[in-house]
Design goal:
This protein has 196 residues and is of the alpha/beta class. The protein has 5 helices and 9 strands. The chain has 2 domains: 55 residues, Histidine kinase-like ATPase, C-terminal domain (Heat Shock Protein 90, 2-Layer Sandwich); 131 residues, Rossmann fold, CATH 3.40.50.
Length: 196
């Protein structure tokens, strides 16, 4: 939908417009550091959404930062001492900067709190973060595996575009970890607890 549209017969007699509206809108929004997505429900219609940053370089500041617990406005990471799972919860709209920041923190906390399982909760993520998914697949995932990752339970956001970004972010033929996607946190936890 966000690509250029070309008419097969190159005429505008039947329909008005050039088919460039969404493409141009998406390009303008991306150039301003934002993102543009659509949510659609059969029989109900579509909602076109976009986000633009109010402050491009506003620093990401930790609200909590201890050896086994981190929290900022984009994510929370917990590594309980009596558990073999790292818990990560992503919150709100994500972009390249927040995903790289959060990904680096996940690697740091996995190294500091050795364990092989991650419960990655995206239920509160809004919209798309596709601009970061190639980086996640090519750079972040291999570094997570080097840090000890073996089993990764990913709980989807309700946002279809966030789900697509998630799937693309682990699309790496060389991956050695087991990664499963879930719509239910309970099912994800059962799977993760049974991983050996």
């Amino acid at each position: 939908l966000f690509e250029r549209y070309y008419r097969a017969d190159n005429s505008s007699a039947r329909f008005d417009g050039l088919g460039l509206g969404l493409f141009i809108s998406a390009e303008i929004i991306k150039r301003h550091g934002g993102s543009f997505w659509i949510e659609s429900e059969l029989g109900k219609g579509s909602i076109f959404s976009f986000k633009l940053p109010l402050e491009l370089d506003r620093p990401i500041v930790a609200d909590i930062k201890t050896k086994n617990h981190y929290k900022d406005r984009y994510l929370t990471i917990r590594c309980p001492e009596n558990d073999d799972i790292m818990y990560v919860e992503w919150i709100g709209h994500q972009d390249m900067r927040s995903v790289k920041h959060g990904g680096a923190l996940m690697i740091e906390y996995l190294k500091a709190n050795p364990r092989s399982k991650v419960f990655n909760d995206n239920r509160l993520v809004l919209g798309t973060w596709s601009e970061a998914s190639d980086w996640a697949a090519e750079k972040w995932l291999p570094l997570m595996e080097l840090a000890g990752l073996k089993f990764f339970a990913w709980i989807f956001s309700a946002s279809v575009f966030s789900q697509l970004s998630a799937q693309k972010s682990v699309d790496n033929e060389e991956k050695t970890s087991e990664i499963e996607f879930f719509h239910s946190a309970d099912e994800a936890m059962i799977w993760l607890r049974n991983c050996k």
